[in-house]
# Entry
Amino acid sequence: MTMVDRLCAVSSGLPLPAQAELLDFAEFLQHKNRSLSKTTSQRLQSLAGGLENSPIFAASPMSIQESLRREWD
# Structure
């Protein structure tokens, strides 16, 4: 039995006001999940390209690796 089948079985046994409340809650969760995924992708996009002008990464990749290795000496 899938989740949808279980939900239908449970909700069909509820009185009409409880079914309306269940539908309202499901729509709330749907809206909440949409806004969370949009917010997450917007936050990730805001981080893109934030270090291209950083003095830490201005050197060549090889020299950056060498300086990181020297930190442990």
Observations:
- The longest helix spans residues 16-47.
